[in-house]
Amino acid sequence: MGRIRMGRIERRVLYTWILTGFLLVCVSCGQKPGMGTDKEPGAQEGVDKIPGTDRKEEQASEGSEYLADEEAPLLLKVATTKIPESTGYQGLEMLKDKIERESGGTIEVQLYPSEQLGDQVTILEGIRIGTVEMAFLPVESVGGLFPEIFTLASQLRDEEEAVETCRREEFQGMWEEMRQSAHIRCMGFSVEGVRNVWVSDRIEETADFEGLRLWMPPVSLYTAMFQSLGASMTSMPLAQVYDGLQAGLLDGAELDGESVLRYNLYEKCKYCLETRHGVSVDTFFISEEVFQEMTHEQREVVQKAAEEVSVWLQEQHEKNRDAVYEELKKKGVTFYSPGDALRQELEEGLRKVILESLEEEE
Predict the structure, then answer these.
(1) pTM, rounded to two decimals
(2) In whole numbers, what is the pLDDT of the chain averaged over residues?
(3) Where are the beta strands (DSSP E) in 238-270?
(4) How many domains does the chain have?
(5) Which domain holds residue 70?
(6) Distance between alpha carbon 204 and the CA centroid of its chain, in Å?
(7) What CATH number is given to the structural domain containing 13?
(8) Spatial separation of the C-alpha atoms in residues 259 and 268, rounded to whole Å
(9) Whole-angstrom Cα distance, residue 318 to residue 330?
(10) CA gap 300, 291 in Å, rounded
(11) Which of 93, 122, 136, 157 is the most buried (most CB within 10 A)?
């Protein structure tokens, strides 16, 4: 499916600014956490219908009436890579409760945690083709469908700055482009934390990355950066990373702190190299087709719930961030910053893959 592209000159100017500053991109997700577009939740202007069977007809063909009869509620399958013990999943439980209660029972929400419906790329593709209605995923999952968003978001280095960046109008405009081109709507976001490298043996120089087997999400920009340093990417569900470390199939992982704590990876990864090469921005996505087939009242309920849960998640992340790192220290994890030479190599690696990404787009 095609997507809207920026002109060559405009894109060059934008990326040159990004690479020069290297710390922050001037983009945002809207007026407050959760806003993927400045349109009212019920607005339907300019929305292209996605070819395929109408969902009302699908439910009728299965022997049930659609929402009008109030006998068969609209089903929203919400998929995520988060595990039930995580703060993110607690937010999803709140989302389910709010939507079902405030919709008066006309919407039923089913939660699918722990990659039950696939990894983040598979889940997002499910939204696009209509097998999943809604998802809660890291922003990097959109890289394959809309590289501009992830390429820009990958420049974030600090949680507080990331929150401010994601609230600006520029990012809202990019989400709107993705809504129109990929038919996927952003409904809310929260900044979980910076991403670092967690390993079983200390890394001191670039040569230590040679042959290092790292788990990382299936995101081309991240994998290309570390592969340029000599590391190799090992792909498996996040829930299996602990077993991979224990079996000697992995030497470490590229993650945020809360994930390391929730998945008990600190038992195997005793060193955290604070590369701060990105920030985890978790996002609520919904199929635009599903959203437009809801009643006006249902759209308002779902949008409001996603925004409120996003605000709650952001508050929890900010409140617990220091506590997470203190707990990891108590668990025996040593935190240290890369030396000047290693940091320069990391920055050059990221700079190189961004430039290559730009060249591929032309």
Answers:
(1) 0.77
(2) 81
(3) 252-256
(4) 1
(5) 8-361
(6) 30
(7) 3.40.190.170
(8) 14
(9) 20
(10) 10
(11) 136
